[in-house]
């Protein structure tokens, strides 16, 4: 998997890294059981600090996307608790949709945007 970091972005590097790994899982480029590069290897490849990679991996573990194994390192292990995942998604979407509503974004536009995201990123499983 190729990780591309935008060093000019306002988004923190560890967040960019996390988001790219999550997108890799969602698009099946990364699958259950796949090992991620070691912290040192990924930091060297991207040209970032090891602590940044460590932070991203720790948060991915906390959110249930990876497990950390002393021998294998970070391994993709998606949390199978769908109800919990849907509730977290709902909480995030409520705020995003409220912001859109304040800007006069219609229900139809939201539906079209979601369809566009599924199509553009190939997330539909």
Number of helical regions:
5
Overall residue-averaged pLDDT value:
91
The tally of beta strands, per DSSP, is 2
Query: How is the main sheet built?
Result: 2 strands, antiparallel
Our measurement of the CA-to-CA distance between the termini, rounded to an integer number of angstroms, reads 19 Å
Strand order of the largest sheet: 1-2
The general outline is globular
Assess the beta-strand content as a share of residues.
Answer: 5-15%
Structural class: mainly alpha
Low-confidence stretches: none
Q: Rounded to an integer, what's the Rg over CA atoms?
A: 16 Å
Write the element-wise H/E pattern from the N-terminal end onward.
Answer: HHHEEHH
Estimate the helix proportion, in percent.
55-70%
Entry summary:
The protein is mainly alpha-helical and 125 residues long. 57% of the residues lie in helices and 6% in strands. The model has no long low-confidence stretch (mean pLDDT 91).
């Amino acid at each position: 998997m190729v990780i591309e970091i935008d060093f000019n972005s306002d988004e923190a590097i560890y967040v960019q890294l996390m988001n790219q790994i999550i997108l890799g899982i969602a698009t099946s480029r990364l699958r259950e059981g796949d090992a991620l590069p070691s912290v040192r290897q990924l930091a060297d490849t991207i040209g970032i600090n090891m602590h940044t990679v460590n932070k991203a991996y720790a948060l991915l573990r906390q959110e249930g996307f990876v497990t950390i194994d002393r021998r294998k390192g970070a391994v993709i292990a998606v949390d199978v608790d769908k109800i919990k995942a849907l509730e977290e998604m709902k909480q995030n979407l409520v705020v995003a949709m409220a912001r859109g509503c304040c800007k006069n974004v219609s229900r139809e536009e939201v539906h079209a945007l979601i369809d566009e995201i599924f199509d553009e990123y190939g997330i539909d499983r």
